[in-house]
Each structure stands twice: as structure tokens, then as C-alpha cells.
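Check out a protein:
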Amino acid sequence: MNPQVGIIMGSDSDLNVMQAAADILTELGVTYELTVVSAHRTPLRMVEYATKARERGLKVIIAGAGGAAHLPGMVASLTPLPVIGVPVKSSNSIDGWDSILSILQMPNGIPVATVALNAAKNAGILAASVIGAFDTAIGEKVASYKKSLETEVLKKADKLKKEGWQNQFDQ
């Protein structure tokens, strides 16, 4: 099956963060491709990737970038597909704020959905949610995943209560 989501990053040093998007997409049954596309070092590759993404069958692009973090916004300016930006705290980053603000502060007309610093897993969940809005099977997997989060939290709350930690909420 052709990939539905493109996961791109400015450098392979971002893979340790972006792997989480690939992992959750696999868990949710969403096909994806993953590659390096640098806005600054390979601008023509970026243009080709973004302009051909839709015709190749992609439905969403997740773009991770650190530092100046131009990749998500530049890709969004070149494709009609939804782009989810993942700010990456890189070695040349100003504590990640430069990446966050570069991706978050897009001009009107070029939206980029932005997740938290290094939150590629959330980008994967968001991409699956977008696809799940039109694909019932994927939508059900996303719903089931979110339900499992609730179950996990309730188990932890119950464990704390059984171990003797008291709070007024659970009385």
C-alpha cells in the first residue's frame, strides 16, 4: 500500500525524535514514508517532495526541524496537504524556542499545525486522526488508542489509592 503520511526531517540527527511518529503510525495501521529533506541544504529536493506529495498519494506531511526550523513552513507553502510541524531541540537550538516559534508563527494563508517540542508522537496521532476522519478503520484505531490512555490513567489512580495515597477526589 502506498504511504499515506510523509515524515520528513531536516537532518538524520532528528531521527531520534521523529521515530516516535513512525512508531505510533505503525501502531495505528497508517502507512508512511520517512526521509531527510533539508530546507537549507537541499531546497530543490524540498520543493520536489512538497509539490509531488499529493500526486504520490500522501494525505498528511509531518515535518520535523530544529534551529531556524524552516522546513514545515516552506513545505506548507508548496503543498495543499496538511502539514504538521515538530519543533526539534537540536544542538544549535536556543533551548528549542527558536524551533517552536519558527514553526508556530506562520503567516496567514500558510497554516502549519504545530505540536510541542520533540512531540513527534503527537504529530503521528494527529496525522492518523486526520486520515481517520475519512477512513473508518483508522478512525476506530485512533479512538481505541485514546480509550487505552483513559484506562491507563484510571489504573494508575487506582494503584495510588490502594497503596495508601489519599485525595479528596477519589473518596
Remarks:
- Helices lie at 15-27, 43-52, 71-78, 97-104, 120-132, 136-162.
